[in-house]
Fold these 4 entries.
Entry 1:
Amino acid sequence: MKIFLLLIIMACSKFTFAQARTIHVYAFVAEECPISIYMAGALSEISQSYSSKADFNLVFPLKSSSKKTSNLFKAKNKLPLYNIILDKDQGISKKLGATITPEVIITDADNKVVYKGRINDAYLEPGKRRHIFGSNDLNNALAMISEGKEFPKPWKNAIGCYITYTKK
């Protein structure tokens, strides 16, 4: 009887864990983009808060990115909970519609985009940073999405460095 109950508990635990990780966060960043570097602190905090509910990915959409430079960015900016995705052919970036670094795109279990936009409102435009910001869009989106709610549109556009797509 004890073994049977243990198996049921284990099965439920696995189901709950798998179900909880159906949120996928893709943070598009570039090693040399000053706004990507600045936003890394916010990305780190958010991943710590939601690590049990989402998986986190740093997507490097530039051909110049390498394993070495992306790992250095991850380590230097204290982003241990993020997986690294080198998107040299820009397939993921194009598929999800990323245009800026840093920009965050959240997808659900069906890979449907449920949020696309800025991390927070620290920047008014490139080169114009607020000293105090009031809207933490990524955190707000994850809070709602993890509760099964939709984050309302229109989503605020990310501000940063443009992703230049290569032609094929």
Entry 2:
Amino acid sequence: MTVMSIKADQRMVFLCLLVAGLIGSLAGVPLTIAVLSDPAVGGPVDPQTIWLSALREALLVLAPASALGLWLGKKVGLGAILPEATGPDAAGLGGRVRPILGVSVAVGLAFAAPGIIGLFLFPPGDFGPGLGNPTPIDWLLRSLSAALTEEIAFRLGLMTVLVWLIAVVVRKPGTNDSVFWAGNALAALVFAGFHLPPVLSVDTPNWGLVFSIVLFNGLAGLAMGWLYARYSLVSSMLAHFVADVVQHVIPRALAAIAG
């Protein structure tokens, strides 16, 4: 493969990530509108503002994260979007994704279980105002949104950059285990903190819930980072999507049917 064809491939991968980031950002808008329209959050809101904010997120956050991840990933052994094609049955998207389905779904289910338990352990109001407004469909779209946008931002972007920075500082290759796990842990901590604003926005935060969210999402972030490095970004996206659907969508859909 020539240098020119490699660059063309990278441009195509970046374009696909740009589209994925755009879809992910827009998919999360219905839930955001439903939550922010609640008077307890300060609603009503202007939907057009939320849609434009999603576009800005895709262009100003996810696009640079994708570019950095693809560029620096090659230097530290990261940045794979899909698993490598191996064997005669690996041709096409299905053949490359099929081998990682089992481990991706298993990791997603493993981290969905504690989240479901948390829904019963803590009062609904402790999770933040407005979260009872979205429909199961809104949560399904948000699950897709989180899987695409958060994995691009926190794994492909932030984690790759952190591993590269640590490798430069300690003068070790990015493939070194200690370098990788240090970068993965730092990205996981930021990922965990990203989930705290709703629970901290209530008048009296439930600090047990805050600790649980940091622990749960921190461990989940480590697992997603491992999937990203070991299998591909698509693997961490699949696990993230499964975890969110099982935790957020299925219980609410069952409650709606029962009600």
Entry 3:
Amino acid sequence: MTKGIQALRGMNDILPSSTPVWQYVEQILIDVAKRYAYQEIRFPIVEKTELFKRGVGEITDIVEKEMYSFTDRNGDSLSLRPEGTASCVRAVLQHSLLYGQTPRLWYLGPMFRHERPQKGRYRQFHQFSVEAFGIESADIDAEIIAMSARLLQDLGLREHVCLQLNSLGDRAARQAHRQALLDYLMPLKDQLDEDSQRRLTQNPLRILDSKNPQVRALLTEAPKLPDFLSSASSAHFERLCLFLDQLGIAYQLNPNLVRGLDYYTNTVFEWVTDKLGAQATVCAGGRYDNLVEQLGGKPTPAIGFSLGIERLISLLESVGQLPSASTVAQADIYVLIEGEAAQLEAMKQIDSWRDAIPKQRIRMHCGDGSFKSQFKRADKSGAKIVLILAPEELNCNAVTVKYMREDKPQHRLALAEVVAWLQTLTF
């Protein structure tokens, strides 16, 4: 027997039993972005490898170890996108969206990283992201964080997450902090793990992001970046905190919060949870005021965040907030049919019903099957109402209405009255 071909490890199929939950989550995210008047942008999954080396940073885990890169037939080095911000900046520059504009954008789609697959961390994963360009003041930082808070609130997750906040300052601040951090860590080099020793000479700030408990213990007395902030960066951060206080958004200051990508400056934040084990970060983002210039544009302030869809769904499941079966039902109305004449009549009637109530989902039973088996399928579909069309109903030019989720008596309805009746339903 020929061995079947399976999906690549860490790249998962999302089956029909799960897609309703995904659609539910994605629709909430999209609706919130629209309420803030952000616009959708879409860009390719494959980009030039150079984009991520210049944008994300060559001395990052993503570029060093995790990118899916290959050489195409023209000899160009291409990569599956490991994150979306660099691609978004490339698209904004390529299509001149910054001229006289301050675009506020959202996008949704798959990203790819060659990591060790585990719960909450996959090789193909999906992100919802928001980016805002051209605004330097702290009010846009506050709006971005407030939007992330509203997304989590609308998903029913706000009480299960905590906002952590920090400022990385500008280039001068990071350079001064880098030297102080080096002076502190060099005498402790032998106590650092292999990754931290490598980062010590390449990008010591990344050591602050270490998950190794032994390394984290060594960092308790390390120089803190907030102590090196310029007056402008400090004022920006204080104003952001004032806005968040005004909005009633609680936060914790975390001086070791640096994020894993090189392009971040000034404000960085993470929404974290204690419900998912090691994969604690649910949503994260911050400012990247140098990235547009780094990728060939004029100096442009920018800020954004990303949420992992898989991790959101895991958190919903962990805290018992997955949508109910009625929310993610396959159908609202299921039509049971008996006999060829009823099937021919149903074909004609159901399309007219779909015209009359375009927002409702009507599933017609197809194929053979007893009424008992059809009812089982109707129940499994999550339908709230079953309409029965059988020889007895055809003789009366009617359908029988049976309620599947409510304690109401079934009744018969003339075919001529079905459309008007359907239009009165509210699901």
Entry 4:
Amino acid sequence: MKEKLRVLVADDDESIRGILTQVLEEDGYALTTATSGEEALELFRKSPFPLLITDIRMGGMSGIELLENVRKTHPETEVIIITSYASLETAIVALRAGAYDYLLKPFEELDLLNSVVNRAAEKIRLTRDNRYLVEQLRKKNEELESMNDLLRNLASQDGLTGLFNHRHFHECLSAELSRSGRHHHSFTLVFLDVDNFTNYNDLNGHLSGDTVLRDIGKILKNSLRGSDISARYGGEEFVILLPETSKQDGKFVAEKIRGLIESFPFHGREKQPLQKITVSAGVAAFPEDGKDSTALLDYADKALYRAKDKGKNTVCTQP
């Protein structure tokens, strides 16, 4: 059942109030009446009405004053002014003050009364519908933006560790090469590889191996600055991009992370050759070790293999 539109009628003439009540209730409106502008304003303040019909001349507060008070707090309320031929000029003033329309009394043509009120009611309904549609559109846009953010994150994140993935890392590396080259700044690249990871998986299972990789991802997230980039490069290999960082400072960061991983209580670590989970790391710096992504990655990769050759669980800065 459609909700009846609430209408407030303010007029100090009982006969006018009676006519409006009879005609508009027959048309399906929910009528409330007031005998003065002051009473109408008090009723409105308690429970605002979408449509107000008020005589322009009443004892005390005039219809224009009532209109101005109502429009201050509820500009969406539509107001119809009742006037006589003798005060038609003041009706024009009311329209300029924001009234929707006016009615001339005495009401010789009730169809005209119905028409004016129904047009105002239709405008109110259309405004409400439009507001509802705008709100729904806003919510849909927020949901769409949220989904787009999720998709962007999924496209750039590694599903297992929550770190950035291989593709996104290369985008970040390319951007950092451009930025650092333009401003003549240095940055450091660190390759990390989990030592004896195949052995760990064989003895503890791949699910435990996945847990190790996730835990290493958390260690990297918690150990780096907000401006640093950490990514899962593939398998058990990780890469870190440290902007505005010298090679010496980059090695210090790599050593810190190596130590944190070495001391972390991974499940099943006692079965490893060193009775703990460890990583080897290779460090390369821009521009001294390479001025493009291929040269830098190759340098860091060779430094990593040198760390492996030296017995693992170490950090190397030279191939």
